[in-house]
Automatic annotation (TrEMBL):
Keyword vocabulary terms for this entry: ATP-binding, Nucleotide-binding, Transport
Biological source species: Idiomarina fontislapidosi
GO biological process: transmembrane transport
Residue ranges occupied by any ABC transporter domain in the UniProt entry: 5-250
Protein name: Peptide ABC transporter ATP-binding protein
PANTHER family: DIPEPTIDE TRANSPORT ATP-BINDING PROTEIN DPPF, TRANSPORT ATP-BINDING PROTEIN
Lineage: Bacteria, Pseudomonadati, Pseudomonadota, Gammaproteobacteria, Alteromonadales
Coiled-coil regions, chain positions: none
Length: 270
């Protein structure tokens, strides 16, 4: 049986910003391989500049890899296959203020992916927009709202609605929880867990928070200066002896958040 997603030696080099055209390219991501199964959550961790966003953007098709392959359900997924990727892998960004278009209503923003990817009449599109808004805990009436009329948490719910409206297999969330205050963050995590249960979504989440990772991740991938230094099941990474850098990443803020346990079926309370 093939994996839902398999990355084989994905890597990325960039020409440094403000460099001469002949300057050597720098390596943002060394060849990285991992697998993800249906319904699983993979957390990508690492310090600032370790390549987390680069990897998540390559998976979501926002950035082209410099090399390596990505397979979805055993079939190679090329960078140029934007329609196939768009239908199966969607991304939620950190800052919903930047990722949502302030000039469009919520309904218009949710309609966009449907117009590009589905051949359905306007009445069906509206029905799907309404039901998706309800799935993320908003009301059908919110379709007429502009982003500035919503709270931060509601905006992040809209961003999630836009990500799930095409019924994707994978949602990539790049620091999507970091800008939220603790109670809203807990609500959004619970929403993501509920959607995973109902829709079978797999998540790839980029986060600095060991508490969130312990609560929702089945597997963890750790990057250090562009190199993958650990990839394993959360349970094994937490219980087996790890190198000091991995230990620090996995345990650093734990004492402040002892209410979040390793029991991933429990809901977060803040
Ligand atoms: N468009 C780009 N052009 C040049 N270098 C880049 C570009 N994007 C990222 N990099 C470099 O690649 C490396 C990895 O960056 P990346 O944003 O993936 O790290 P990160 O782990 O996500 O960091 P953070 O936690 O701060 O978001 C960094 O050295 C960064 O400066």
């Amino acid at each position: 049986m093939s994996h839902l997603l398999e990355a084989v030696d994905l890597f990325k080099t960039f020409r440094p910003r403000r460099a001469w055209p002949w300057s050597k390219k720098s390596v943002a991501l060394e060849p990285t391989s991992f697998t993800l199964e249906a319904g699983e959550t993979l957390a990508i961790m690492g310090e600032t500049g370790s390549g987390k966003s680069t990897l998540s953007k390559i998976i979501a098709g926002v950035e082209a890899p410099s090399g390596g392959e990505l397979y979805l359900n055993g079939q190679k997924l090329n960078y140029a296959q934007s329609k196939r990727r768009c239908q199966n892998i969607r991304m939620v960004f950190q800052d919903s203020d930047k990722s949502l278009n302030q000039q469009l209503t919520v309904g218009q923003q949710l309609e966009e992916p449907l117009l590009f990817n589905r051949d359905m009449p306007s009445s069906e599109r509206n029905q799907l927009i309404n039901s998706t808004l309800r799935k993320v805990g908003l009301l059908a009436e919110h379709a007429a709202f502009y982003p500035h009329m919503l709270s931060t948490g509601q905006k992040q719910r809209v961003a999630i609605a836009r990500a799930i409206i095409l019924d994707p297999q994978i949602v990539v969330a790049d620091e999507a929880l970091v800008a939220l205050d603790p109670s809203v963050r807990a609500q959004i995590i619970n929403l993501m867990l509920d959607l995973q249960k109902d829709m079978g979504i797999s998540y790839i989440i980029v986060t600095h928070s060991p508490q969130i990772v312990k609560h929702i991740a089945d597997k963890i991938l750790i990057l250090y200066r562009g190199k993958m230094i650990a990839f394993n099941e959360t349970e094994r990474l937490l219980t087996e002896k790890q190198q000091p850098y991995v230990e620090t990443l996995l345990h650093e803020h734990l004492t402040n958040h002892s209410q979040i346990t390793g029991n991933s079926s429990a809901k977060v309370t803040e």
